[in-house]
Amino acid sequence: MIASLRTLIGRSADIRVFSAGLLWSTFGTVIVRLTPMITTILISHWFGIEFVGKFGVTYGTLMSSSLLASAGVGLMATRNIAAYSINDPATAGRLAGMAFLLTGGAAALIGLMIFLFAHEIAGRLLKQPELAFYLQIIAPVIVVNAMNTVQTAILSGIQAFRTIARLNVIFGGLMITLVPVGLYFYGLSGSFIALGCAYLGGCLIAYPAVVAALRRRGIEIAFREAFSQWRLVTRYAVPALLASLLYEPVNWICTAMVVNNPDGLAQVGLYFIAMQLETLLLFVPQIVVQVVIPMLSTGFGEADRRRVINVLGMGIGTNIAIAIGFVVVMMTFGNWFLVLFKLDPAQHWPIFMIVVLAAAIIAAALPLGQVPVSSGYMWTGLSITAGWALTFIIATWFLQDRGALGIVIARAIAWSLQTVVYIGFTRFAIGRTCGEKGTLLRDRDLSTAPAKSASLDA
Asked: Which residues 6+ apart lie within 8 Å of 371 measured at CB?
């Protein structure tokens, strides 16, 4: 009876933390995610599909480079700050300091390389020399975008979802105001300059908020001794960084294959519009993942099988419900979406239907994709991502003559296979990390020690 009551209370606490985190994170992310879609609609109406292709390639380079600099460190920060914030705030502070230093250094190096070699990238790799100017514009933007990403990762580690929401509202307001104005008066170059200003403003506003949120947990950012936690970099950040090297640039590589073909810019523009549809479907599932990571990390760290299964169940169930609803909406009103971008529904509908179905699969698989990170099997996660990358590249190579249709088919194949692998690995990780013995020890400890509850920032 007591054990059942304890289980019910623990499950209710997980649901409460999950629901509150999802609500605040969703509220703050809507405007940020809508800005690229609004910009794409405006470009398609004002300039045409080829300019959408130019924007898509340049914006994709910006996002891939920023995530390359910050994704590995951000995952390390989220996972380990969540683990150390309560019992060892000094270590959490050093981890936050190291995350800032590593991300800033990596982003500055990547931005400098893109600025110096913009003409070679545009002319030799993309076969579109006119893109060199835009690549040079976004080079410094990479730094501030990466810093924004790592600050959000740190806040996610302490489950400061309300703070993240407030910052995203401010940041989204800057983006949705500045970017269309820059686009209207100065074209694509104006949109990227405005985007950079929005990222810079968001970064400057976010840092004091991060410091204040950490101090409320008794955590002080420490830069001087930051690299004393280097072992966590080699264990978590390095494989996550390598996964980013595989994951993010793979999208860029596959796009480069298509853009080199006849009518390549128009096909990339069509693909970029299709990816806006995927972004629309996945923006809430990706927020679910942000909420799930620290909760899963806690569950695996405590070898709490019930908590891990509960969190995964909530995450997957929420994402499947969203995916089903979105598929129904697109089946009913999908033609309106295509007309919004000045596309022909009769000609382009197959591409977007494949994207919708693939995005539904991705949504269901996203919580499972966090299991390698949360359970400490980072190198296994890297291997799974490598398989996805190889599948995507090979399939795109064989289907590149079909343009946008070929790349979305290749993407659907890669994600379907990766989902199957994630299901198998999740069963293994739960059995290995949270076996029955670990659960029994956890129950025994709870019966003799006061419970600790996760808290959201006020």
From this structure: 296, 312, 377, 422, 425, 426, 429, 430
The residue type of 218 is G
Instruction: Report the distance separating Cα 72 and Cα 237, nearest Å.
Output: 5
274 DSSP assignment? H
Q: Looking at the 3D structure of the chain, how many domains does it have?
A: 1
Structure tokens at 135: 């690549």
Closest CA relative to residue 249, chosen from 23, 67, 39: 67
Q: What percent of the chain stands above pLDDT 70?
A: 83
Residue 175: inside a domain: yes
> Per the domain annotation, does 70 fall within a domain?
yes
Report helix, strand or coil for 361.
helix
What pTM value is reported for the model? 0.65
Which pLDDT tens digit goes with each residue over 330-357? 778 777 777 777 777 778 888 888 888 8
Task: Look at residue 27 in the predicted model and tell me its pLDDT.
Answer: 57
- More confident: 15 or 277: 277
Domain range for residue 412? 2-448
Q: Is residue 454 part of a domain?
A: no
In a domain, 190, yes or no: yes
Q: How far apart are CA 164 and CA 228, in angstroms?
A: 28
